[in-house]
Amino acid sequence: MPEAEFESVWSDLQGVTFSQGYLDAGGVRTRYLHAGDTDKPVLVFLHGSGGHAEAYVRNLEAHAERFSVWSIDMLGHGYTDKPGHPLEIGHYVAHLISFLDAVGAQRAHISGESLGGWVAARAAVDHPERLDRLVLNTAGGSQADPEVMKRIITLSMAAAEDPTWATVQARIKWLMADKSKDYDDIVASRQRVYRQPGFVSAMRDIMALQDPQIRARNLLGPDEYGSITAPTLVVWTSDDPTADVAEGRRIASMIPGARFEVMPGCGHWPQYEDPKTFNRLHLDFLLGK
């Protein structure tokens, strides 16, 4: 049996010209990872609920040749400022637009996973003039599944309230199709995020969208999806724990002219589990191939 290879965030970034830092986005101190020349078209990656910029460590290098690539800690997440109130989609969208302003991007490609996809889609509805191309990657926001919502709350709050190796690893493994791997480096990165003072309260604010009433007023329906004018790619997976392929196809069917792709053998993080396939599909779409 071949020896398991240790998967390191640092190894993913070795040899990549990138920077990590903070900038002011509308008064919000916002953490980012950046790669690529700043005179190139802007691409922003948005992670999921309770996540952070490292969700895209395996995608920076492939995109940096053609784009100015930003992976950010979204509002209330990671090391970005925590506003101290329940977070709804409008709050995230406002922060995203402020971030685009801060980096001087009149227009940008926005690619979001899970919550990030929900935010990206809403931004495309509300601010069509700011989007070039849109990628919805196992995106949330189209439905309210009580069992999934309960599971997200249970796993996320357990990890935030008692960020042991086991609780944080359980939250990470839930995202992945391959449960045999330990994802040590991602677990260590997230454990450090969750151990920040006050993060339990921040996680409660993040979990607001799992509340049925709050979620209901933030959901996107046929009218919203149907109004999206940006060229759109919807990426789904064979083993997504939040919704099946049919839901991804339904989302794509509501967006005029959307392209739909299914990645086999992946869960909620296809950009991490199969970066080679994701990067190829993603780049082909962004480059209009």
From TrEMBL:
One of its GO terms (cellular component) is membrane. SUPFAM superfamilies: alpha/beta-Hydrolases. Keywords: Hydrolase. One of its GO terms (biological process) is acylglycerol catabolic process. Coiled coil: none annotated. GO terms for molecular function: monoacylglycerol lipase activity. It comes from the Bacteria. Gene3D superfamilies: alpha/beta hydrolase. This is 2-hydroxy-6-ketonona-2,4-dienedioic acid hydrolase. It comes from Mycolicibacterium celeriflavum.
